[in-house]
Amino acid sequence: MRVPRRPRGARQRRPHRIPGGPGSPRPPRAVTASLGCLPGMAAAVALVLCAHGVEHAAEDAAALSAARAAALHQAPRPAVVPRSAWLGDTTREQPPPRYDDEVVAVFVHHTDSPNGYDCADAPGIIRSLYDGQTGARHWDDLGYNFVVDRCGTVYEGRAGGTDRPVTGAHTQGFNHRTTGIAALGTFTEGTEVPPEMLRAIAAVAAWKLGTSGTDPRADVRLVSSNGGSRYAAGTTATLPAVAGHSDGYMTDCPGAALKARLPEIRTLAARLQGRGTRDYLPDDTQTAVRNDNDTRNEEQVP
Q1: Closest CA to 80 of 145, 125, 128
Q2: Fewer beta carbons within 10 Å, N or C terminal of the chain?
Q3: Virtual torsion, Cα 31, 37, 39, 41, nearest 10 deg
Q4: ∠ CA(94), CA(91), CA(113), 5° rounding?
């Protein structure tokens, strides 16, 4: 028996089993484009985030490693007698202290004063040095950052805070990013340098240089800020991290006897930083800031 066929126009198509296939309803083009790009964009974002995370992880690891290395060579802070011990209650108007970003070198001096003093008299001698520099020389403060007496007592010198990188007035042309340590006395050739004084100078040098991770046995690059030094203004000089005053200025200071002991001071300071004899001495040295417009207290001290 024949079954009558329906007209073709009445026939209905079955929906496709796979959404989005031919003949299926389609969303607007913009939506289609966004949906089509989503997997690729997600992958790209994931890759970027991953790379960003890896990069920062590497940076963090490097910073942590550098911090650990610096911490390994930070010497302890020696006992420091405050300014009030030698300055007393004297109040004197002076400009605020100036600071650098860090300390990368130490200059060793002698005060060119008598040696046969009793250590109990050291505060009075330092006060006399202060009166001479702020009086006859019209300086705003004592030039040295620290003064060490023959018994190894360390005194705070210039104001501003012993823990901070105070800009001193001790080595013409090289006061920036350095600390001035003065040995109380005169140490010309043939003069005995007390071992307590040597140890105290090394302790201060190790402590201050350790804050910047500087090896006391290394060389550093410093930019001269004054043509009155051994180097014309703007010249980059390579100097020992623990230098004598005469390394930066034309002078006999710190005296032939004390200057001859600087290698010993450097070695002891490195040991106080926890550095061994086979530790790497960095060839890459640091450069001091240059400030040609700041020439206050650029005069050299003895």
Answers
A1: 145
A2: N
A3: -120
A4: 80
DSSP H helices, 213-279, are 245-248, 256-259, 262-272
Token readout for 283 is 């060839």
> Using CA atoms, how far apart are residues 173 and 234, in angstroms rounded to an integer?
9
Question: What global pTM score does this model have?
Answer: 0.74
- Angle (deg, nearest 10), helices 195-210 and 262-272: 50
Please give the full DSSP string across 1-53, using - where no structure is assigned.
-PPPPPPGGG--PPPPSSTTSTTS----HHHHHHHHHHHHHHHHHHHHHHHHH
105-117 pLDDT, tens per residue?
A: 999 999 999 999 9
Question: Under DSSP, is residue 147 helix (H, G, I), strand (E, B) or coil?
Answer: strand
Residues in the chain: 302
Q: Which tokens sit at 130? A: 């202060």
Dihedral, 45, 50, 56, 57 alpha carbons, nearest 10: 160
Number of other residues whose CB lies within 10 A of the CB of residue 104: 26
Structure tokens at 136: 């006859």
For residue 110, the surrounding DSSP H or E stretch is strand 105-110
C-alpha span between 114 and 125 (Å, rounded): 9
Is omega for the bond preceding 254 within 30 degrees of 0, making it cis?
Answer: yes
In angstroms, the CA 133 to CA 94 distance is 13
**Contacts by residues 31-34 (CB-CB < 8 Å, ≥ 24 positions apart):** none
Interval 163-196: pLDDT, tens: 999 999 999 999 999 999 999 999 999 999 999 9
